[in-house]
Amino acid sequence: MLLKSLNSFTIISMFGFAFFILFFSGFLEFPSLSTTIKPIRYPTLSLTKSTPHPFTDLVTAFKEWDSHVGCPHFRENHKVSIQIANSSSSLQVSDAESECGELKMDHVSVLVKGWTWIPDNLDNLYPCACGLSCLWTKSSVLADKPDALLFETTTPPLQRRTGDPLRVYMELEAGRKRSGAEDLFISYHAKDDVQSTYAGGLFHNGRNYHVSSHKDNDTLVYWSSSRCLPQRNKLAKKLLSLLPHHSFGKCLNNVGGLDKALSFYPECTNDANVTPKWWDHLHCAMSHYKFVLAIENTVTESYVTEKLFYALDSGSVPIYFGASNVLDFVPPNSIIDGSTFSSLEELAAYVRNVANDPIAYAEYHAWRRCGVLGNYGKTRAVSLDTLPCRLCNAVSRKGGRNAGAI
C-alpha cells in the first residue's frame, strides 16, 4: 500500500512539473486580466500598442484612427449601446405619420406672442406630415385668426372661451414651471406635452462656422461663462487649475479681457463691418481647442443645453457636468462625462492622456465620421428646428379653436 501511494505521488508530481514547463515555455497560454477586463466608465486610451504622442492636426489624427481602428470596428463596438439607447424614455418619439388619424384640422396657424429662445427665422409656412400645413409667425397680420397663441416670456390668459385660440406656454429653463393657464406645455423634458431639445441648429444662426483643423496642444481647454454661479465657478476653477486653458468670459477670465477671441483667431471674424457679439465667433473659436468645458447652470434630469451641443458642433470634445442621463441625448462616445471620474485629478489626467493620443482623441469624433448617431438623431428630431410641425400637430389633435373652453 505504501508503494502504491508513493507511485501515485510520483505520477502527480511529474504531471505538475510538465504543466509548469509547458506554461512557462509558452505552449499553454492563459488570458491576462488586462485583456479580459475592460473599463466601462470611459474609453480605453490604448486603442493600439503604439506610444501616444502629442498632435496638433485633426485630419492627421483621423487618418491614424482610420488605419488602426476604422468605422466597421466602431459600429460593431457600439451596436449594443445603441440598442440600449434606442429604448430610452428621455426623448419623445417623433412619428407624426402614426398620428394622422387623430388630426382634426389640415391647417394650423400659430401666433407667437412672447419669446426669448424663438428666433425670427423660424417664421414660415411649413408642409408637415399627414398633409398638415403649419403657419408659424410673429405677425398678427399673417395669422389674423390663429388656432394657437404661443407664450414664452409672458403668461397666457387665465381663461379661454370656446372659439378662442389654444394657449401654448413654452419654458425651456431647468425649472419647467408651467404657467397654470396653458392648454399645451412645451419644455425640454419628454414627460411634457411637446418636447424641444437644445440640439437644433436654429439656436445659433448667423455665426462663423469655420472649423479649424489645427488643435492647440499647449492650451487644451476652452471655457467661456459670464454668469458666475458659485457652484459652477468652484468646479470650473478647480478643474481648470489642473489643465492648460483659455477662459474668455467674465468668469475666471485669463485672456486679458472680454471679446479677446478674435484677437486670438482673426479668421473667426463674421463681418468686419459689424461690431462683433460674443456669440458670432463662438463655434469658430471653440474649434481650435481639443476640449470644451461645458457645465450646466442647473443639474437636473434631461436638462442638456446648448453648452454641450455648441461644443459638439464645433468639432471639439465636451467635458460635461450636468444631467445624469446626458448619454441619452448625445452620439455614442462623443463626450467626456466628468461625473464618471472619482476625482477631478483623475479626470484631468485622463484629458491630458487623450490630448496626447491622436487615435484615442479621434475616437471621440468617430460618430460623426462613421454616421453612428445613436439617440442623437432623436435629439435633433425633437429640437427647436422641428417644433413648428410638432406643435401644429398637437394643436390639430386638440381641434384648435374648436376645443372645449377652459
Automatic annotation (TrEMBL):
Domain Fucosyltransferase C-terminal, chain residue ranges per copy? 217-398
Identify the GO cellular component terms for this protein.
Answer: Golgi cisterna membrane
Could you tell me the membrane topology recorded for this protein? Single-pass type II membrane protein
Question: Mostly located where?
Answer: Golgi
As for subcellular location, the record says: Golgi apparatus, Golgi stack membrane
Where are its TM segments located? Answer: 6-28
Pathway this chain belongs to: Protein modification; protein glycosylation
Q: Which superkingdom, per the lineage?
A: Eukaryota
Q: Give the top-level enzyme category.
A: transferase
Q: Which family does it belong to?
A: Belongs to the glycosyltransferase 10 family.
Under the heading PANTHER family, the entry gives:
ALPHA- 1,3 -FUCOSYLTRANSFERASE, ALPHA-(1,3)-FUCOSYLTRANSFERASE 10
| Name under which the protein is recorded | Fucosyltransferase
Naturally occurring in which organism (per UniProt) = Cannabis sativa
